[in-house]
């Protein structure tokens, strides 16, 4: 008799617990549909805590919706934990990967961000955020110096990128590092037409003309010092006719960049250029700001 009562008590507890979990799930779903993410998360937190206290896992959709709710509430750590749990349980959706990508970007975990961006593109090529995902993936390839992956991706997104200065800038960085000068020149020109103050394009031109001038200047000055003949001097003068216009172009780009953002590296370049011009006052001014 006592044994039967114990069984009934256990069954009653199980039924009560099941009803309680169902009620919390329903309350969470209703709140989620109404975009009351705080209430939704409060309900689902209880379900997750109950399951995990027994060494188990809640259902994957609960982790997913809890993760999205936490993300909406800017609870990044909890959002990451829940969304990763949902992913680990086999849950998949465009918003899951898009949200994780944003979280990984915020916490500066580039390798994990690249992974979920790649998964999104593979699984959801028609997803609502595919354009943003593709743009960011190209940017991450540039940031992580995965030049070949960037080139491979470009062949798939080139059409989308034609009116996007940010994507073109990412691809410019990739081509610059691959020493694809012709492609880099075309990209920089295209970017400037779309966005006159684009930093990547301005830096490309500023550095391009500086080194073009500097390398020729150093080469010809060294040649003249080693062989001070009239013919060598004429050669030097001819070279300088090319050097000064390029230093001027570089100076103008760096002045524009310095006005936008007075970085020490821009100031150092300007100091070097004015040194070549033998303008000691301006060279000293910019060298001081380069420190």
**Corresponding CATH architecture of the domain at 198-291:** Alpha Horseshoe
Helix fraction, binned, reads over 70%
Structural class: mainly alpha
* Overall pLDDT score: 92
The SSE string, one letter per element, is: HHHHHHHHHHHHHH
What proportion strand?
Answer: under 5%
Give the termini distance in whole angstroms. 89 Å
| SS element count, helices | 14
Question: Notable features of this structure?
Answer:
mainly alpha; Serine Threonine Protein Phosphatase 5, Tetratricopeptide repeat; disordered N terminus
Folded structure, characterized:
- The protein is an all-alpha fold and 291 residues long.
- The protein has a domain at 198-291: Alpha Horseshoe (Serine Threonine Protein Phosphatase 5, Tetratricopeptide repeat).
- Helix content is 82%, strand content 0%.
- The protein has 14 helices and no strands.
- Helix 7 (130-143) runs parallel beside helix 9 (165-177).
- The model is unreliable at 1-19 (pLDDT under 50).
């Amino acid at each position: 008799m006592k044994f039967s009562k114990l069984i009934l008590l256990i069954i009653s507890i199980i039924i009560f617990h099941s009803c309680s979990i169902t009620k919390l799930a329903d309350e969470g779903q209703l709140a989620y549909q109404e975009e009351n993410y705080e209430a939704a998360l409060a309900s689902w937190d209880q379900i997750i805590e109950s399951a995990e206290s027994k060494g188990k896992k809640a259902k994957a959709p609960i982790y997913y919706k809890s993760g999205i709710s936490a993300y909406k509430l800017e609870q990044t750590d909890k959002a990451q934990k829940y969304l990763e749990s949902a992913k680990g349980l086999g849950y998949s959706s465009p918003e899951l990967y898009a949200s994780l990508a944003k979280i990984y970007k915020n916490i500066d975990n580039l390798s994990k961000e690249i992974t979920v961006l790649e998964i999104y593109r593979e699984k959801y090529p028609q997803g609502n955020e595919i354009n943003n995902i593709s743009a960011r993936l190209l940017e991450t390839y540039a940031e992580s110096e995965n030049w070949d992956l960037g080139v491979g991706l470009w062949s798939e997104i080139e059409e989308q990128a034609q009116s996007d200065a940010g994507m073109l800038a990412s691809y410019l960085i990739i081509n610059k590092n691959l020493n694809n000068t012709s492609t880099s020149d075309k990209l920089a020109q295209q970017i400037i037409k779309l966005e006159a103050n684009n930093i990547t394009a301005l830096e490309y031109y500023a550095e391009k003309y500086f080194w073009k001038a500097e390398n020729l200047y150093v080469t010809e000055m060294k040649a003249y010092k080693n062989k001070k003949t009239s013919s060598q001097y004429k050669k030097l003068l001819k070279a300088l006719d090319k050097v000064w216009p390029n230093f001027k172009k570089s100076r103008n780009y760096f002045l524009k960049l310095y006005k936008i953002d007075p970085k020490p590296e821009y100031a150092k370049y300007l100091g070097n250029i004015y040194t070549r011009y033998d303008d000691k006052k301006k060279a000293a001014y910019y060298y001081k700001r380069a420190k």
